[in-house]
Amino acid sequence: MSTETIEDNPSPERLVTAAGIARRLGRRPIVLVGMMGAGKSSIGKRLATRLGLPFCDADIEIEKAANQTIPEIFEQHGEPYFRAGERRVILRLVTEGARVIATGGGAYMDAETRAAIAGAGVAIWLNADLDVLLARVRRRSNRPLLKNGDPEETLRRLLAERNPVYAEAPIHVKSREVSHETVIDEVLGALDAWLDSNPAPAATQ
Length: 205
Prior knowledge:
alpha/beta
């Protein structure tokens, strides 16, 4: 997200709504999925703060477990090795109680990971258009999948491959160039509606 608007003192109404959503989640985690550059980490941190929940970045947890950066893992071991470690980390994170988890762009493509997220929590797809993603990823140079070839061509291919899978997530929210708080309000509204039909089992409350 390019707009760095942060609401330090949300209105009492917003705080009440967020507290209610956190309570209704029970022990279920919120898992943000979507393309690189969709804003999963930046939105996730602020969403966790609004809900009063811990925040976890799966990529950071992977780097801790491997004692290497993700670019180093890709370079030294290859993508299949990275994806296996990514799967193990996410399968662990979703069993550790209510929290907000930001995942890497390819994580949700793994069927076992999708099933684990669906069984333990709720996936939210932050869906961003190509032009938004391209502008954001060009600001960073640590994207292993964009190191070779034309970034725009690579993103087009990845979007075509991944969007149908991301669409399996039960909640979709548009990530675009507006304030973080606007997107977070939309996430909370969508979560509120989803929880109406998906109350937490008594054992998870």
